[in-house]
Design a protein that fits this description.
241 residues; 10 helices; alpha/beta
Length: 241
């Protein structure tokens, strides 16, 4: 059973002013690293402004996981210098590896504990994609980070379990949709039941607390419109245990 101080609660991105966020929470999943990684100076400032006991996790740059056809490239204003087929889907290219080293540089400055690799629904469990997953995670320098993978396509549970176990990955999930295939450490990304505009009820949060008890350590990252409110309420529930 998890010790209650091993449940870490925060939000996906700065949903409050930075000073207010750092005084309210002790965990943040950095979103900017997914779209276009911040400058080194920006990451250094965040780490300096955050309390010493503050935990960062980061989302890996989309050049590793998403193809250039993804609308998130346009949102980030990324102008690719090479052929589009050299980016995304963990392809074995120099461009993907360079994108990882850029992500790792920022994560190192932030002293991040976990790097989350989120793949799009278009990343299906084809033979090529599975091979790319094994090649990437089996050979990349991890720099001491724990790795989490959030597959959004229709991947069979047995295949996800095998990949995660063999490659030492955390199965990143929204626990209201499915539970992780891996044990030990859980990484929950809470996107809202039925949509981003969902506000979690007290009953939802009590259920979440029960799910957390099944793991040794849990990262709970709220990613809905009411993320700051819901995360604060969940922390208050934890404090009453």
């Amino acid at each position: 059973m998890v010790e209650w101080n091993r449940i870490h609660v925060g939000c996906c991105g700065f949903c409050l002013r930075q000073s207010e966020y750092f005084s309210t929470f002790r965990l943040l999943e950095v979103q900017k690293t997914f779209y276009k990684p911040p400058r080194v100076e920006t990451a250094e400032r965040w780490r300096l402004q955050a309390p010493d006991d503050f935990t960062f996790t980061v989302k890996a740059w989309q050049l590793i996981t998403h193809p250039p056809s993804s609308p998130t490239y346009r949102k980030a204003g990324i102008d690719l210098p090479a052929s589009p087929d050299r980016f995304g889907y963990f392809r074995p290219t120099d461009e993907v590896m360079e994108a990882w080293e850029t992500t790792a540089r920022v994560a190192s400055i932030l002293r991040a504990r976990v790097v989350v690799f989120q793949t799009p629904a278009s990343f299906a469990p084809t033979e090529e994609n599975v091979e790319n997953v094994y090649r990437f995670f089996g050979n990349v320098e991890r720099h001491g980070f724990a790795f989490g993978w959030e597959p959004r396509g229709k991947w069979p549970a047995s295949l996800v379990r095998r990949i995660d176990e063999e490659l030492n990955l955390i199965d990143v999930v929204d626990p209201f949709k499915r539970m992780p295939e891996t044990r030990g450490t859980a990484y929950f990304r809470l996107h809202g039941r039925g949509g981003y505009r969902y506000r979690y009820t007290d009953e939802d949060l009590r259920h979440l607390l029960g799910l957390c008890s099944e793991f040794d350590e849990v990262y709970c990252l709220f990613n809905n419109v009411y993320m700051a409110e819901d995360a604060t309420r969940f922390m208050e529930m934890l404090e009453k245990r």
